[in-house]
Known about the structure:
Blueprint: H1 6-13, H2 17-25, H3 36-49, H4 55-62, E1 67-72, H5 78-93, E2 97-102, H6 107-120, E3 124-127, H7 136-144, E4 149-153, E5 160-163, H8 166-179, E6 185-190, H9 198-210, E7 220-223, H10 227-238, E8 246-249, H11 252-264, E9 274-278, E10 292-295, H12 298-314, E11 322-324, E12 328-330
Parallel strand pairs: 1-2, 1-3, 3-4, 4-5, 5-11, 6-7, 6-8, 8-9, 9-10
Antiparallel strand pairs: 10-12
Amino acid sequence: MKRPTQTDVARIAGVSRATVSYVLNDQTDQRIPISQETRQRVLDAIAQLGYEVDARAQALRSGETKTIGVLMPMYENPFFWQILLGITSEAESCGYNVLLSHSVMTPEQQTQSMRELAEQRVDGLILLMSFKEFSDSVISQLRKSPHPIVEMTARDSEFDFVHQGYGEGMHALMAHLLELGHQRIGFVFGVSVETQGSDRLTAYREALQNAGLPYDDSLILQCGERMEDGHRAAIDLLSRPDRPTALITINDLLGMAAIRAAADLGLRVPDDVSIAGFDNIPFASYSVPRLTTVDGNPKQGGHDAVRLLLKRLAEPDRPREIITSGWQLHIRESTGRAP
């Protein structure tokens, strides 16, 4: 059946199409002088026909879509879903919808994701991946965009951004392991591009230097982002004759993969090797043993990203703003004294 229009509603209600438009756009404050009887006839006709406002046409007229685009790098890691939960709850409380687009780290997919977001029309964009990780063509698109952009990143940005405080968290985690007597600490660096975890890598090196310990590049093993990648990297590090006594993984998913790798090699956690991660995903407190981790407060970060975006929409010329998210070290069963 043909979708009912405002003209159809007007015919049923016996009023002009303009009157229908006034009722639809002025139901709450009633600034347009329309009698209650006329208003009710229009509402009854709307209900009878099942008329729904064409949101896209309304957006074209007003210039606003009440939609926030979110570009997210990978679905597998629950950390990003926690951020997304913060974004959606804050956006909905402010009357906005969220349009999610997923991008893997290939230039072609990034370009396609940006094209899809542009076609859908959004008022602004939140990037859950560093602006500097995009291809040159996507970076050019973003810089030319008339819509505000907010990043959630560990690095500096030319846009408003929420800064993840994982560098400070790495210092705290390293201090915890050093206090337990660990001196050979491995790092499973599971990233697609090195810039993703550069804050933690820098802090790892600084912590060793501050403790007067030598930096051993062979203890850092870069791998992919999947759990099987982390498992293989942990097997590699823990199979060495001079294996590390502690492993730090770039996130909790890889931390749980490292616990599995230790078990596969007949090693006990934490008696033979301590393991710790980042993100404090819900699974971290249910692994065996429970995983020591740095919590980056992703849900609050999502809230903050939406607030920055809405501020920019309201005041396009305001100075760039940076919000630093908090962190907390959760010490659990997976870390213990060095053997």
